[in-house]
Amino acid sequence: MPPLAVFDLDGTLVDSAPDIHAALDRLMARLGRPGFARAEVTRMIGDGVRVLVQRACAARDLPFGEAALAAFTADYTAHAAAKTRPFAGIPAALAALEAAGWRFALCTNKPVAATEALLAALALPVRFAAIGGGDSFPTRKPDPAHLLATVAAAGGTPDQAVMIGDHRNDVAAAIGAGMPALFAAWGYGLPEMAAGAAAIAERPAALPALLAEFRQRRG
Q1: Residue 131: enclosing H or E segment and its boundaries?
Q2: Confidence band (pLDDT; 50, 70, 90) for 82?
Q3: 161 in helix, strand or coil?
Q4: Does residue 174 register a pLDDT over 80?
Q5: In terms of pTM, does the model score above 0.90?
Q6: Strand, helix or coil for residue 199
Q7: Which residues are the active-site ones (predicted)?
Q8: Of 21, 7, 1, 18, which Cα lies nearest the Cα of 124?
Q9: Which of 122, 117, 43 lies closest to 76, judged by CA?
Q10: What CA–CA distance (Å, rounded) separates 210 from 19?
């Protein structure tokens, strides 16, 4: 069976912080609160849209409510690709991995609708065999069940899969699933979030060689 590279989305494949930032600022403006600095926003990303909005509301002394969550989700989904772009080097790395025989899946805490809208707009150079979004299964990262369900949906097995992500949730999910984790150091996660990862990729161009090493080790 061909090996499977399971990618996180935000902070790993794409720099989505500009559009998440803009949507949060629009939400705050509607609620009569000031917006955020970019660094504040990147620290909020990684645990799904509900936690993102909860953190944003808490940072501006606002009570969290379902109406705020629904408003943000609809607004962000409609504008998810306004400024979001793949990180430099990602398209070339994906193309090289595909040429080397890798298949691909996405395991993200972002809702599926926003994920699919973003992918359609960006037209990344590969096809994803499965998309495990934050609302695809009963659990989400760091629960390994989210990652395992995504691998299964892609027709893969954990012993032939690698998780690539920039957040501690990616590393924790991979460890729990019995899979190696490759930490994407160019993303939004802090360096200490790489603890437990099998390897660290400083830039996307390093992915083909690192994944080739994993493949060789696993036979």
Answers
A1: strand 131-132
A2: very high
A3: strand
A4: yes
A5: yes
A6: strand
A7: 8
A8: 7
A9: 117
A10: 30
CATH at residue 66: 1.10.150.240
pLDDT tens string 24-63: 999 999 999 999 999 999 999 999 999 999 999 999 999 9
Question: Mind listing the pLDDT tens digit for each residue in 147-158?
Answer: 999 999 999 999
The pLDDT of residue 7 is above 90: yes
Residue 109 has, within 13 A of its CA and on its CB side, a CA count of 24
Q: Is 166 annotated as a binding residue?
A: yes
Same domain, 10 and 43: no
Nearest Cα neighbor of 129 from 151, 98, 159 is: 151
In degrees and rounded to multiples of 5, residue 200 shows phi and psi of: -120, 130
Which residues are designated catalytic? Answer: 8
- Residues 55 and 146 both lie in one domain: no
Same domain as 39, residue 9: no
| pLDDT of 219 over the 80 cut | no
Question: Does the annotation list 10 as a binding residue?
Answer: yes
Q: Which of 137, 26, 41 is nearest to 76 (CA)?
A: 26
Contact, 167 vs 188, CB < 8 A? yes
